[in-house]
Design brief:
Elements: H1 11-26, H2 31-46, H3 63-77, H4 81-104
Helix pairs in contact: 1-2
Length: 124
């Protein structure tokens, strides 16, 4: 297997690397460097490709993801109060809008009630 071959990685690991790579590219890292960092992160967290076979599994660690979350949190804390507040208002509005959409798509599955009592089922 040549160096750089990704056949030993699962689909989940490949998706994970893709998402990490996109995040780096959004922050202005070159495509090549972003890809390198993404695969390094997947390897660190999951111990490389997950080849099939009994006894080959290894526990995953979330250390790199945790570090990234902390960095993002620190960046958020450095924003102004008004910027954080605006983001919170926008998020709340989105949640309200989506909750309203869920209620309206419930369909017409209402049943007629039998004088407030539920019917008992009997075995036949």
């Amino acid at each position: 297997m040549p160096r750089g071959d990704k056949s030993a990685y699962t689909k989940r690991q490949k998706r994970k690397a893709e998402h990490i790579e996109e995040g780096y590219e959004k922050r202005g890292v070159s495509r090549r460097e972003a890809e390198r960092r993404a695969w390094a992160t997947v390897n660190k967290e999951e111990g490389g490709g997950k080849k099939s076979g009994s006894g080959r599994g290894k526990k995953s660690t979330k250390s790199s993801s945790r570090k990234g979350g902390r960095k993002g949190g620190a960046a958020s804390a450095s924003r102004s109060k008004s910027a954080r507040s605006a983001a919170a208002r926008k998020g709340a509005a989105t949640r309200r809008r989506r909750a309203g959409a869920k209620k309206s798509t419930g369909g017409s599955r209402s049943r007629k009630s039998t004088s407030g009592r539920s019917r008992k089922r009997t075995k036949r």
